[in-house]
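COMPLEX REQUEST
Ligand: 2-acetamido-2-deoxy-beta-D-glucopyranose
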Amino acid sequence: MEKILTLFLILFIRFLTTKCDPCLTYKVLDTPNEHTRSVANAALPSPICDNTLEVGWYRVTSYAGERMPTECVYGGMRCGTSFSIWMNGTYPDAGVAKTVQACAAHYDGDCCKYSYDIEVKNCTDYLVYNLVPVSTCYQAYCFGSELACPAGETSDNNGFTPGCKYEPCLEENHQTLDHWERSVNNTEIGNLCDNVLTPGWYRPISAVGNTMPTECPQGGYKCGTSSPIWMDGSYPSSGEIANVTACVGNYNGGCCTSSYDIQVKNCDDFYIYNLKATSGCYQAYCFGTEVKCPVGETSDNGGFTPECEFDPCHSRNYGILVGEMKRSSNYTLQKSDVAIEDSRLTTGWYRIDSVTGNDIVNESVGMMQCGTLYPLWMEGTLPDVSDKTVDRKVCQSGLYSTCDQKYDIKVRNCGNYRTYYLTQLNVDKSAFCFGTFPVPDPTTTTTTTTRRPPPGDHNSSKDDENDKDDKPYIWVIVAMLAVLSTILLAILLVKFFLQRTVSKRAVSFVDVKGKLPTYDEVIQNEKNNRLQMIQTVSPSAPVNQFVGSMTSIPPNSTKMGQMKSY
Ligand SMILES: *[C@@H]1O[C@H](CO)[C@@H](O)[C@H](O)[C@H]1NC(C)=O
Ligand SMILES: *[C@@H]1O[C@H](CO)[C@@H](O)[C@H](O)[C@H]1NC(C)=O
Ligand SMILES: *[C@@H]1O[C@H](CO)[C@@H](O)[C@H](O)[C@H]1NC(C)=O
Ligand SMILES: *[C@@H]1O[C@H](CO)[C@@H](O)[C@H](O)[C@H]1NC(C)=O
Ligand SMILES: *[C@@H]1O[C@H](CO)[C@@H](O)[C@H](O)[C@H]1NC(C)=O
Ligand SMILES: *[C@@H]1O[C@H](CO)[C@@H](O)[C@H](O)[C@H]1NC(C)=O
Ligand SMILES: *[C@@H]1O[C@H](CO)[C@@H](O)[C@H](O)[C@H]1NC(C)=O
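STATUS: Structure written out below.
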């Protein structure tokens, strides 16, 4: 009864498996670059063993081949194992599956020491095998007959035998040259000299370009050297090598004062050059045509032409706000504070440097935060470095909502920091929020705020406007000064005219007795003054007078003493 049951079960499973086409539902046994199971491969020190293989349909995708050998692997010790399993049978036609005998060859010469019933199906373009686990170790199924090419070689069969050959295009077979100075458009005086170059294949990898110029760099002093070397010849097509002449251009006008036989190979995506050392200095091979971007500009090509553009990450292009800690969204405006006002900010790129954080706040912030009345916070996220310059909106928090009004800013991620294009605001008592950390205790830290404005990309007329907007108090002071000076002038004039009338009156009337001193009083004053003079002078006056009359030598001097002793 049990036997019948198991038979039914087996039949049922068979039925199921045949229903599922193994050409579609298989597992991959060996991936493209594996060649372990190849008949050309010897036994491994740690041999493979298929005792743990799950029963099921397998496909081999290795470039070594997918066919199980149909001849005895005599003596075994191949396919990375000791007992190499081969197929005692023939392959079926397209779409047909058949059962064959898999034999494990032993080193004693027995070609079928162990045998298994396996299935093989021809899926037209490939084969699939229904494999079973082996009974003992080390037995393993063999597939394919090719091997990967040795290091430094390649072949038409995806780097597998047959036809492996040396390939200079392979990374390990050439060196790289990374000198932007070699650009033929580089006219900066340089002293590159290729007399120390080890002969061999080179790939120029600098961002300035990979091609050797095929026209003479007239007049020399290019490519970072005085005698630039160019290529008198033409480039080979894909996969080909061309023998060409490398000509030494000279500063005195010669275009081929000396030459070298070199080779150039087309590796599809780039060229490589089989170069020789130069016989003299300063001679160097030219490569590429691009040049450095002007200072303050950058490009997608690592800072080299083409398409250089303004670089908001270059220190000369942005201003800095240092230590403006109260811009932190954590800080609430205090009564004693003067609100930060970005109506006084010069429009331009800024970098922020504060212990409370250097990035713009991107979460909604209520009124009175960020050291101002109407704080500005950014919608969205900070960009990545690869995003380059992005446009963002900032929201102005106000009486009605945390987004009463929106403004445009630009943001650039410079890696370790961000820069922001901030426009001078047209409203007072409003400022951009930067940083979210609490402002540290002022007793423990002393920070000074400094501002470096961004470089002016605005013209003078705009500057004047800025000044007017910036400093309205100056005009108030000027106006007040003007009013004050007219008042003063008026007072002075009034006084002057009054005095003139008074003195006229004094002459005509003798009623000034009370003001002017009498004759007696004047005499008395004189006397008093003289007395004072004598009293203050008296202690030293007699000596001085005496010495002064005798000689011009000052008192107490040695000469005086000598004179006395004579
Ligand atoms: C291969 O199979 C054939 C027929 O099935 C059999 O006669 C032969 O002995 C087998 N070969 C080996 C080496 O077992
Ligand atoms: C499948 O069989 C056909 C002949 O019917 C043959 O041409 C083809 O090469 C076989 N496919 C494989 C992968 O061996
Ligand atoms: C290039 O020169 C080498 C020897 O340096 C030579 O073997 C090869 O045939 C030449 N190739 C061509 C296309 O002239
Ligand atoms: C390099 O020089 C060539 C020829 O003088 C010129 O056509 C080309 O535009 C230059 N390229 C750059 C990036 O300056
Ligand atoms: C400021 O930060 C402190 C500490 O992280 C926190 O307790 C406080 O609520 C924050 N205040 C505001 C206004 O965000
Ligand atoms: C703020 O920016 C950070 C970093 O860019 C991001 O992870 C976060 O989701 C942003 N928050 C909001 C509210 O958009
Ligand atoms: C100067 O400002 C005017 C108007 O503000 C603008 O149109 C012009 O392009 C500016 N010139 C320069 C050189 O920036």
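REMARKS: The pocket of 2-acetamido-2-deoxy-beta-D-glucopyranose (ligand 2) is lined by residues 91, 93-94, 122, 124, 126-127 (CB under 6 Å). Residues 476 and 482 are 10 Å apart (CA to CA).
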